[in-house]
Amino acid sequence: MSKQPLALLDAERQALQTSTEADPLTREFSADGSECRIVFTACAPEAVEETIAAEKQRAQKAGYTLEWKVYGHDSLPKLPELLTQAGFEPDDRETVLALSVDQAMLPADEALDIRQVTDAQGFNDYEEIAHPLGRRNAAQERQRLAAERESHPGEISIHIAYVDGVPRACGRLYLRAGGHVAELAGGRTHPDFRRKGLFTALVASRVLEASDQGRELVLVDALPTSEPILTRLGFEPITWTMPFVFEPDENA
């Protein structure tokens, strides 16, 4: 794949900036303010440690979870080491995969029942899928996503696969207003319904929506468990990403 997907990825990361002031960091806050992701880092190498300390202090004071996303093609090779030294916890490394929408040829199984979330019941169904997977804070996630969709209508879409009317798998699609890129996230399937085509069908339904919305590229951060499936569907690796997480100390 050419360098164009990387350029589109970086443009999307920087476009998430909401501050009107000069800032080397691009932050993305959840609608309820409980989480912040730093998705782009452009500070000078000699300023990294000071910048990390300042962001930790800001998160501690405001009481939000801070996730710092590091990308393999960024120009700060010591950033992961410095984040770890500062007390951030590294999470799983993921491969960033890209699919050109105009080249997508994904199988569509019309026999499967795929629906988009449009109301409170849909969000309840989304939460229901999380419980057998042992996911913590499923109710909080449901509330956060509902708040995000209300505050940014059209920028988040949730697809759910039903089997005999029961929600069994789901996935999210992010469509930043005015962007050229769509992002897949949150793919999960009930353990008893894996290897039945639900994951693939949800990828296909979200890519189709991305196409309908005029997006050029679909991106996804893939764990080793899903990467082989996605590459068989035509996705190609362009870089890697790894989140580092800081949780504020409630007793501080």
TrEMBL record:
GO molecular function annotation: acyltransferase activity, transferring groups other than amino-acyl groups
Coiled coil: none
Gene3D superfamilies to which the protein is assigned, alphabetical: 3.40.630.30
Protein name per the record: Putative acetyltransferase
Keyword Cell inner membrane included in the entry's annotation: no
Keyword flag Chaperone: no
Top-level taxon of origin: Bacteria
Listed InterPro entries: Acyl_CoA_acyltransferase, GNAT_dom
Provenance organism: Renibacterium salmoninarum (strain ATCC 33209 / DSM 20767 / JCM 11484 / NBRC 15589 / NCIMB 2235)
Boundaries of every N-acetyltransferase domain copy: 112-252
Keywords carried by this UniProt record: Transferase
